[in-house]
Amino acid sequence: MKVRLSEFNESWAIMFQEETQFLKTIFEDEIICFEHFGSTSVQGLKAKPVIDMMCIVKDIVKVDSYNDKMSELGYDVAGEWGIPGRRLFRKGGDTRTHHIHFYQFDNTQIERHLIFRDYLRTHSEEAERYSRFKEKLAEQYENTSEYSPAKKSFVKEMEQHALAWYAQSKG
Question: What is the DSSP secondary-structure string of 1-28?
Fold first, then answer.
């Protein structure tokens, strides 16, 4: 897929809410809550215009029973996609609009993602630094298959800062 970086767009929050309402009609009581995370959830941060949604569920194994229904509705069913305990659904084909990451309520990935999001939301200078880095990479790499791995070490380092910030803020 081609890298598409966009300026922050207020409509991303609306797209998140609309998809949340739709997914509730499918998964009903399996869902505990939804979280908007990733770059589209951080005011002012440049992002690929793909809404990252976290759907926290009671039982991750039950999510698999919805694969056929999700596929019929046009979602790409990607399974764990490299992260044990996650179920990933992608919407929009080549012009992807949403990534829906399902996690069981006790999965450690949940906290990591939300801490990183909250760190960027409260540290605008770090969000700006991340935006500049992503712009630079988007100039170097045309496809996400090259772009995404190239930003991995930068994100890991920033994530470590976020985790330290979180630990310190908890006392």
Answer: -B---B---THHHHHHHHHHHHHHHHHG
Instruction: Tally Cβ neighbours within 10 Å of residue 63.
Output: 21
In angstroms, the CA 146 to CA 138 distance is 10
Query: Residue 92: which of 52, 37, 62 has the closest Cα?
Result: 52
Question: By three-state DSSP, how is residue 124 classified?
Answer: helix
Half-sphere exposure of residue 14: CA atoms within 13 angstroms, side-chain side: 4
Find out whether 53 and 36 touch, Cβ atoms under 8 Å: yes
* Confidence class for position 7, pLDDT limits 50, 70, 90: very high
pTM (two decimals): 0.93
CB-CB contact of 31 with 5 (8 Å): no
